[in-house]
Amino acid sequence: MKWTDAEAIAIALADRFPGIDPLTVRFTDLRDKVIGLAGFADDPKASNEPKLEAIQMAWYEEFKDAQ
After folding, report:
1. Cα end-to-end distance, the chain, whole Å
2. Any idea which architecture 6-66 has in CATH?
3. Which residues contact 42 (CB under 8 A, 6 or more apart)?
4. What distance in Å separates the CA atoms of residue 15 and residue 25, rounded to the nearest whole number?
5. CA 10 to CA 62: how far, in whole Å?
6. Mean pLDDT of successive 10-residue segments in the chain (67 residues)?
């Protein structure tokens, strides 16, 4: 997965961190969670606010659907 794979990352985050409301996760913590995912293979320094926001919103959609 790369930073631009927001949907795939969101699904992986929802599976790994069930019950966590993504809107409560700071971007610095979100970045660390993404980097720690199995299958993530992108430059950690390539993250930025728009990419993290896209991931957070996609993760929030997964979170809402699971409720």
Report:
1. 26
2. Orthogonal Bundle (1.10)
3. 1, 2, 3
4. 16
5. 7
6. 98 96 98 97 97 98 92
User: Phi and psi dihedrals of 42, rounded to 5?
Assistant: -140, 165
Residue with tokens 């299958």: 39
- Burial of residue 9 (CB within 10 Å: 0-12, 13-18, 19+) is buried
CB 34 within 8 A of CB 23: no
Per-residue tokens: 24: 């409560």
Taking alpha carbons only, the member of 12, 54, 66, 65 closest to residue 35 is: 12
3-state SS, residue 41: coil
